[in-house]
Amino acid sequence: MTAVHDGEAAARLALSGSYQIVVLDVMMPKVDGIEALRQIRQTSRVPVIMLTARGDDVDRIVGLELRRRRLCAQALHAARAGGAPARHPAPGAARSRWRPLEVGAMALWPEKRKVLWRGRELHLTSIEFNVLEVLMRNAGRVVSKNEISEQALGRPLARFDRSIDVHLSSIRQKLGEGARLIRTVRGLGYHLVKE
What we know:
By secondary structure, the protein is an alpha+beta fold. The protein contains 7 helices and 9 strands. It has 2 domains: 7-81, Rossmann fold (3-Layer(aba) Sandwich); 101-192, Orthogonal Bundle (Arc Repressor Mutant, subunit A). The model is unreliable at 82-96 (pLDDT under 50).
């Protein structure tokens, strides 16, 4: 076990590939835990446990697509296997840090949590941002509600759960004329059209 006392050093060590699991405290000097996690997620899927005593950090952490169940499963798998967990490149890992995801007239900056539609900023909730990011990363293909729920909310879709529909309805309202780009595919999920 290795302990460091600032987020900059934590991110550097986590990205060295020498560790099976990382524990980050949100309140760290130099770079806080949330920024350290952002840096780690640019190129690594090493399991990360976040420690926080502040309730307002929870939404921000969820916004980084942390999946508690997946994290626990990976940590358990790594412990049982006695080796490093399987490494999967982060979505958009090849993309430069500050370059946006772009689909037609829509641009989304994951690190800045910012979305522009035809140059106008959309003010989305944390979950709406996550949902839109999932659709943009999968633009041109149908994404099931369960996939969206797992990636944007960090949990599988429960039976009769309409939360994804509600969030997408709100996103469409905020997009205005751009709402036509998000299509419902009955019985399958949603599809973001590439313009």
